[in-house]
Design goal:
By secondary structure, the chain is α/β, with parallel strands linked by helices. Helix content is about 45%, strand content about 15%. The chain is built from 9 helices and 7 strands; from the N terminus they run βαβαβαβαβααβαααβ. It has a 7-stranded parallel β-sheet with strand order 3-2-1-4-5-6-7, with helices on both faces. Helix 1 runs parallel beside helix 2 (about 45-60), helix 1 packs across helix 9 (about 225-235) and helix 4 (about 110-140) runs parallel beside helix 6 (about 160-180). Bound molecules: hexanoyl-coenzyme A. Keywords: NADP, Oxidoreductase. InterPro entries: DECR2-like, NAD(P)-bd_dom_sf, SDR_fam. This is NAD(P)-dependent dehydrogenase (Short-subunit alcohol dehydrogenase family).
Amino acid sequence: MKILDTTTEFADQVAVVTGGGSGIGQAIALRWAAAGGTVAVLGRRKDALEATVNRIAEAGGTAEAVVCDVRDHAGVAEAIDGVANRHGRIDALVNNAAGNFIAQAEDLSPNGWKAVTDIVLNGTFYCTHAAGRHMLAAGRGAVVNVVASYAWHGHPGTVHSAAAKGGVVAMTRTLAVEWAARGVRLNCIAPGPTETEGAGAALWPTPDARQGVLSSVPMARFASTDEIAESAAFLLSDRAAYVTGDVLVADGGQWLGKAIYTDPRAR
Ligand code: HXC
């Protein structure tokens, strides 16, 4: 049996991570670089992207910042072709960029719906379309899309995000089959509540809301961004060479833990 060396497993490989300037995206970029890979962090905010690049450079890794809004199809194509031209390859893509806020559907403006679905659903397709062409030409590549379990069980206040992430799961499964014989794998990770500034401000803005989220997690804690990055790294690596079209849920048991009958743990 061949034992894979996880400490250098991305050496000589190139990844693109959208939303790589903060939170989960930053942790995935750091994790990729820590295993020897070059990473292009792509996003709207130059200062945030540069903070990630600097952290990676300080640790001896290789990274670059690429300013781009994933909602801009032409801009995405140019940005991703630029990465491929500069580095000669794209081995991995992580569609992590997201926009989210809690809103009742009847209060959601068309523009609010559009902002979130454009980033999550259209942005994921634009990036996958652009990077996928380079992967298909090379006959190898791996894509990880960041979703949430409400993509399949739904959740009040998330109609825009849940619809978009449900679409991303369907996209992942469709392309997993379409591109399977051509060496390109696509999977999702579905993180549960993860300790980041962006998610906290949007999804648990008050101490009560935070406690409510916490009590919904059987493991009774938030995830760290490093824990989520580890799931992404696995799916991007050759350790997951036979895994495609799947969703790896890393949520501390949250979505399975919904109480319907009397919960014996509460007695
Ligand atoms: C209602 C809102 C709103 C809110 C924005 N809008 N915030 N509506 N409640 N809290 C509406 C605006 O009024 C506007 O509509 C429209 O959305 C677009 O807003 P803009 O700010 O002009 O757009 P933009 O600058 O493009 O911002 C996009 C965004 C923003 C999604 C709205 O929040 C963003 O870029 N966020 C990125 C970071 C982020 O959200 N991170 C959290 C991800 S956490 P009108 O009609 O007024 O023009 C995550 C985890 C999920 O996804 C899973 C957890 C388990």
